[in-house]
Design goal:
Largest sheet: none
Helix content: over 70%
Number of helices: 3
Oligomer: single chain
Number of strands: 0
Structural class: mainly alpha
């Protein structure tokens, strides 16, 4: 996942939502990205990649 997509998804990241709604918000943002930039990222796979990267970044700031 490139930095621009990660930043775009982070702008749609509302942690206070229930888990299912939060996931859907990120997946909807992936679909929006695909429409804007004519890409074909899978919303679910991209959500998983986003979560993994978010956790990695959080762990880096803790260390």
């Amino acid at each position: 996942m490139d930095d621009a997509l990660f930043t775009f998804l982070a702008d749609h990241d509302l942690d206070d939502l229930p888990d299912g709604a939060w996931q859907q918000m990120i997946e909807d943002a992936v679909e929006e990205w695909n429409r804007l930039f004519k890409t074909k990222y899978d919303p679910y796979d991209t959500w998983l990649a986003y979560v993994e990267r978010k956790v990695e970044l959080q762990n880096e700031t803790v260390e």
